[in-house]
Amino acid sequence: MSNILVIGHGPAAHRLLRELRRHGHRGTVTVLSAQHRPVQHRPLLTTVLAGRFGAGVLRPAPEPGVRVLAGAVATAIDTGRRLVHARQEDIVTAHPYDILVLACGASPVIPALPGVTDRDGQLSAGVTTLREAADCDRVQGGAVAVLGGGPLGVETASALALRGTATTLVCSGPHPLHERLGDTGAALLTTRLQEAGVTVLGGRDAVRREPRRLLLDDGTEVAADSLVLCTGVEPETQLARAAGIRVHHGIVVDDTLRTSDSRVHAIGDCAEHAGRAVAGYESALAQADTLAAVLTAHKAAHRPAPAVLRLRSHAVDVACVGPLAAFRRHGIRTVGLLDTAGRRYARLALDGDRIAAAVLLGLPEAIATVGHLYRRGLPVPSDRLSLLLGIRSQLTTAGDDDRADAVVCLCNHVSRRQLADAWGLGARTVTALARATRATTGCGSCAGRVETLCAGWADETGRELEPTP
Questions:
Q1: Contact at 8 Å (CB) between 264 and 165?
Q2: Which of 102, 358, 359, 428 could form a disulfide with 321 if both were Cys (CB 3.0 to 4.6 A apart)?
């Protein structure tokens, strides 16, 4: 039996704990959690920010048999003696390990912008990142500015507009997600966001934060009772670097998630596998699954999850599938659809009859089907237009005619039937269904569908939908 010590208690660590138990690990597992609050499901933060779910949906069920030391901040790793030193309040402790797992995550990048931080280097009043439920409470006032044109910036601005807040999204590129969607798709995204109530200011840089306003480089003054920073993240590597463990951008790991020290592994946003760090939520969970198998003597090797971005936004359905570089590969055929009036757009990169990459906007049925085909490596139907327009009768390869068995949550392979069974056994809220089936606890893109199913079943049974606690 081995003594496993985990530094960090985010989603990747939580998944590892669950999978260790499932694989029958019988040794001790101790978690050093710098936070006093329980692990939180970060992909649903913007849904909580919008007011659609309560914060309870962010808290997965705790794993039994695990010792979690809340508020224990790891300060140093002694790889020679296999000890981790930590501070818990005013007490300094040393924790031995046979196997150490670094699940330290990543920290938000704070731009060097006057007025964003105070003299102590802390975020100024009215300025916040979006990393935990408490950050949602810090976003106050009738006018909010969101800085950053990436996925989190778009989701955050959309969520704020949904709850009725006057929202301005500021990004340095000509449009949000310009690098991913290209000129046409990104321009349509701007249009859809503006229709949803978001003021989009592209091609601008912020130069100063002042109380209740944000100043831009062209002289524009943006009303901002709160400023939300969605400006990227950096892997947490300080502990590993100080211990002599190899670090590049992240903590370098091999296919078994092992670092340069054979008794130390790393998973999640702090890890760098195959030259890629901060690989995203799905990859973090996949790494946890692989490592749990490795640590319980099963043969396993991590393979990066397929690159699929699905925005959680009420303004418009957006998905980017596969590497964008595939559009420039030799032998790739491109198929496109542009519906200017309907503000819909799609581009497929086809390698033979398989999808190498895709960009889709405003086509929810096609997004679901294209994602399914890409993940499974299945051929696209010959009628490409029907594929993009979501005409189901033409897509015999992608769907499942037994709708009860249709997969609602791709991350955890939860079907509609499993959700219905859990509902029948008393799981009558999104939070309860998440705990019973693990639906919505992956990338979170199925949360709206699960919420809709909840409401429908409540209507069918004549019961009112219980509020999310």
A1: no
A2: 358
Q: Strands (DSSP E) along 148-247, which ranges?
A: 166-171, 198-202, 206-210, 213-216, 221-223, 226-229, 233-235
User: 399 vs 367, 368, 386, 415, 452, CA distance in Å?
Assistant: 13, 10, 13, 13, 20
Phi, psi torsion values for 327, nearest 5 degrees: -65, -20
Please name the helix (run of DSSP H) or strand (run of DSSP E) that holds residue 458, with its range, or none: helix 447-461
CATH of range 127-229; options 3.50.50.60, 3.30.460.80, 3.30.300.180, 3.40.50.1820 = 3.50.50.60
**Nearest alpha carbon to residue 16 among 267, 236, 300, 298:** 267
* Lookup: tokens for 121: 């280097």
Fold of domain 317-394: Enolase-like; domain 1 (3.30.390)
Answer yes or no: same fold for 4-107+233-295 and 127-229: yes
Structure-token pair, residue 6: 């985990």
| Structure-block tokens of residue 405 | 């068995």
Q: Could you tell me what percent of the chain has a pLDDT over 70?
A: 92
Question: Quick check: 432 and 54 in contact, CB under 8 A?
Answer: no
Q: Count CA atoms closer than 13 A to 196's CA, side-chain side.
A: 26
Q: Which of 52-56, 227-231, 282-286, 371-375 has the highest mean pLDDT?
A: 227-231
Instruction: Report the distance separating Cα 89 and Cα 97, nearest Å.
Output: 22
Q: Phi/psi class of residue 284: alpha, beta or left (left: φ > 0; alpha: ψ in -120 to 50)?
A: alpha
Class of domain 4-107+233-295: alpha beta
Model confidence pLDDT, tens digit, residues 297-341: 999 999 987 778 888 788 999 999 998 889 999 999 999 999 999
Q: Give pLDDT tens digits for 23-66.
A: 999 899 999 999 877 677 777 888 889 887 777 777 777 778 89
Show the CA angle centred on residue 300, arms to residues 298 and 303, nearest 5°. Answer: 160
Tell me the per-residue pLDDT of 353-404, one tens digit each, with 9 for 90 and over: 999 999 999 998 888 889 888 988 899 988 888 888 876 534 443 344 335 6
pLDDT tens per residue, range 441-450: 766 778 778 8
Residue 83 tokens read as 């000890």
First CA to last CA across the chain, in angstroms? 39
Note the CATH number of domain 403-461: 1.10.10.1100
Q: Where are the domains of the chain?
A: 4-107+233-295, 127-229, 317-394, 403-461
CA distance 32 to 10: 11
- Both tokens of residue 131? 């990393």
Give the Cα separation of 362 and 345 in Å (integer). Answer: 7
